[in-house]
Write a structure and sequence with these properties.
The complex is a heterodimer of chains A (368) and B (100). With 368 residues, chain A is mostly helical. Chain A folds into four domains: 89 residues, no CATH class; 96 residues, no CATH class; 65 residues, no CATH class; 77 residues. Helix content of chain A is 77%, strand content 0%. Chain A has 19 helices and no strands. Chain B has two domains: 34 residues, no CATH class; 64 residues. Helices cover 88% and strands 0% of the residues of chain B. Chain B is rod-shaped and about 100 Å long. The chains are: A mainly alpha (368), B mainly alpha (100). At the A-B interface, helix 6, helix 7, helix 8, helix 9 and helix 11 of A face helix 1, helix 2 and helix 3 of B.
């Protein structure tokens, strides 16, 4: 129906295209494909919600209800290119969701490992492929995070980090690093992890300050280079001896830390990265925690609140206006609006994604 | 297949009890009981969490390696310059002593 309308309207308005036509399906093809058309709607909706263009939200509702007018079709032509670019990003990830990648990523999640036992790699792969497009269009920033994660994993797999490991190992060797502590700990059979945590933690903390100090060149004071600094010290032998001793000591500490980051042992890598990431994560924007979920009340509370909103909306003149767009337009608009408010009020993160799944189901029930 | 309402209620109970570990386990243990669309979304949520965690770890390690490698370069340079300056001072001292 939408397609027929498009064909009629397109003839009437003679769309003027600027520049070369974007590669990929045309608006006509997108509208003829139920799934693709729905994704286009999701994309417009998410863009509108993100404040990129509030008009996109209205367009999304019209698209989902097959009530586009000639002016809208012209707009769709404009948005098509960005939409297809987003889709191509998802398409580039899909083939990478193979057995090896899924199993590698599952190592970081005990739950995913259990899921693999239940549904198998094929089951997980099928689910991801089925959901990834919708997820990407509805959660563009989250998808970018996953996409970036894949880039990092690819770089890791392609040996980029291995090269860095080798470079570090060479540097440590060249700097005459003492790795005795490392070797001693690694030889122990029991209590290794605990001792490593202690050892790595203390080296990391002291080395972090040194790295900051040296990499920012603060230690050279007003001198621009190590050479200038050395020459300024050369007049004072005692001062110079002290500086040299500091350099040697700091080199040793950084070297120890770096030698521990080399992939010599998976346990060591795990311990070290936990230490580093633990530190890094504090800086990340706060996401919705499990404990905060309690504040959302029970399913019955959420359903009751959604029901009240739905009834209020049904009595409003806005509902009648939206009904003119299509029989399902008010439902779509209401569900999108409730979900948007829900997300805005509570933030993001793993548990919010989970709650969205349950809340989506609640909204379906309320508007049935 | 269990009733979705029952599943949601059970999940809510764990949330209200503040038991995150049990809530995670519940989702996994009852995965097959959820409707297909919800099931797939739950799998994706766990997958996304794991993918980002792993990339964070690799990224953090790479960051410290890069920073450390740069710092080591600066330190090596500083050490070489200091050793040179030290040799010059020693030579100047020796020459001074000879002249005296």
């Amino acid at each position: 129906m939408v397609l027929e309308q498009y064909e009629k309207e397109a003839e009437k308005i003679e769309l003027k295209k600027e520049g070369p036509e974007a590669v990929g399906p045309t608006v006509k093809t997108i509208l003829a494909d139920t799934k693709l058309s729905a994704r286009f709607g999701d994309y417009l909706e998410a863009e509108g919600e993100a404040g990129m263009d509030p008009g996109k939200e209205g367009l999304a509702i019209k698209l989902k209800n097959g009530k586009l007018d000639p002016g809208d079709l012209k707009k769709l032509e404009v948005y098509r290119e960005d939409f297809l670019f987003g889709m191509s990003k998802v398409d580039s990830i899909i083939p990478r969701l193979d057995k090896a990648s899924i199993e590698e990523i599952a190592k970081k999640s005990p739950e995913l490992q259990e899921i693999l036992k239940v549904v198998g790699v094929e089951g997980v792969s099928f689910a991801l492929k089925n959901q990834m497009h919708e997820f990407a269009m509805k959660n563009q920033s989250k998808f970018q995070e996953i996409s970036a994660a894949f880039e990092t994993l690819d770089a890791y797999k392609s040996g980029e980090f291995e090269k860095l490991d080798k470079k570090i190992a060479e540097k440590c060797k060249k700097a005459g690093i003492d790795v005795e502590t490392f070797a001693r700990i690694m030889q122990k059979d029991t209590g290794r992890v605990k001792e490593l945590e202690k050892e790595v933690g203390s080296i990391y903390k002291s080395s972090k300050d040194i790295i900051k100090k040296w990499s920012k060149g603060k230690v050279f004071g007003s001198h621009k280079s190590a050479k200038e600094w050395a020459l300024s010290l050369s007049r004072e032998k005692k001062q110079m001896d002290e500086a040299l001793a500091t350099v040697r000591e700091d080199t040793k500490k950084i070297g120890e830390l770096l030698s521990l980051t080399v992939d010599t042992d998976p346990t060591m890598r795990e311990v070290l990265t936990r230490e580093l990431v633990g530190d890094k994560r504090i800086k990340e924007p706060k996401s919705f925690s499990f404990k905060e979920m309690k504040n959302l009340g029970t399913e019955a509370d959420r359903e009751k609140a959604a029901k009240t909103h739905w009834e209020e909306y049904k009595k409003s003149p806005e509902y009648q206006e939206d009904l003119k767009v299509g029989p399902d337009a008010p439902k779509t608009k209401f569900k999108d609006g409730e979900m948007k408010r829900f997300k805005e009020a509570h933030g993001g993160g793993f548990w919010m994604r989970l709650m969205e799944i349950f809340f989506g189901n609640t909204l379906d029930k309320v508007t049935k | 297949m269990a009733d979705l309402q029952d599943l949601t209620k059970q999940f809510d109970t764990l949330v209200q009890a503040g038991d995150e570990k049990a809530a995670r386990a519940f989702l996994v243990e009852n995965l097959q009981e959820f409707p297909q669309d919800m099931r797939e979304k739950i799998i994706l949520a766990f997958f996304a969490e794991a993918a980002v965690t792993q990339a964070d770890e690799i990224g953090a390690k790479a960051d410290i390696q890069k920073e450390g490698a740069d710092a080591l370069d600066i330190l090596s340079q500083a050490r070489a310059e200091l050793e040179n300056a030290q040799r010059i001072t020693e030579l100047q001292d020796q020459l001074g002593r000879r002249e005296n």
